[in-house]
Batch of 2 targets.
Target 1
Amino acid sequence: MPRTCHVVLNPTSGGGLGRRLRGEVERELEVRGIAFTLTETARRGHAVEIARAAAESGADVVVAAGGDGTIHEVANGILAAADSGRPAAALGVIPIGTGNDFAKLLEGGLDRGRAYEALAAARTVDFDVGAVEWEGGREYFVNGMGTGVDVEVVRQMERLPRLPGVVSYLAALVRAVLGFRAIPLRIALDGRADERRVMIIAIGNGPCLGGGFWVTPRARPDDGRFDVCIVDDLNYYRIARTIPRVMRGTHDGLPDVSLRTARVIELEAGGAQPLFFHLDGELREPAAARRLRVEVRPAALRVVGGKATSRSGPATPSAAGGPRSCAAPAPRPARPSRPRSRAAPAAPRPSSRPGRRRRRRPPPRRPTPSPATAPPAGRASRRRASPSATAPARARSASSPASP
């Protein structure tokens, strides 16, 4: 159990859910005997200031009670305090947001009850973070970043009404791709440079972005490297074919998609426009940014209740009993497999004759003709007429009077 815990609550997260859940948060922490201080954010960027001050004051755990944006700011506050030479606090999470992509990297997932239990247990896992530098700026991200059409998607999401995470992202994506033009970029992955026109470049520390899009499905937050997804320029037909695959995380192998890994990524704008980007879904539009340097910082952030994957140990067992890794969509590995409609054919029933699946029915037997209608012996080799047809004809000829 942590000695000191500071909760940073975003009252506007989840469409106002954070404000309604303040009583629950206080009650659940008190029941578990956790000593805490709770502060609500008042503006964008406020969580960075609160978290840094709490970490510099000696808090063991700084808890982000909100969505991915709140987690992003709290993590930056903790890391800023660590950069100044103070002992690093651990990051705790109570998921109250819309998308909750980072929460999918935790043992409790989106379950707030398990999040409270994790805070009481205070078991931590070291996660990597991404450090981004550009002309006049520097910032961290914990789950993922990107540029391209993602920038316009974030703009559209801010204009749309509050919707569930994946629905909001999908609606914003549809609006964003209309009229979007691929951007020319010079991309260097661990020094290997390439120039191309891209629609999306996503750098993942975790596997899921946009509230449910498994853009980098094999990414792990503790393996010391990023997973990079590059989507080339697509027409509308290919967009419609690619998006469902990206949602399921099965887009590896598509001709217009590249999935790679790297520790250092350098991006340089090829056109006259500056390079805008997002960090954990938070839009950044520096007017002078034309180059980005993205570098992994291994094991830089302690996370309460994080899933142990690559470096930290084997994946923890799921409720179903098998290994569960954050590199695959969270809801699917826990479900028992169900037989699909195209199942293998059932085994044939046992037969007394080996090698045959079923016994064929014998053809129906024809009725035996009566002696009166039997053909003469001399005509046995000729084709025999049907008894049902010959019998009535002979009966009529026998009963009719002789002609005069």
Target 2
Amino acid sequence: MTDDDYVATGAWLMDLVLSEDEAIDLRTLLDGTLGDLSMEIADTDNPALRVALKERRDRLRGVRQRMAALD
């Protein structure tokens, strides 16, 4: 990626072409990871780690929602 691909929102523009099987695998992986993150967030006593995990979960939820919109 180049600097031209980086937009003002702080996001990289990316096209990702997946086969149907790859898309299914990625959705399954995201769903599992999101569940694991929720459990880890609930179990952690470290406030900074909890914030970081929530931010990661929110980013991955966004990816998963965008994938769902393509179904």
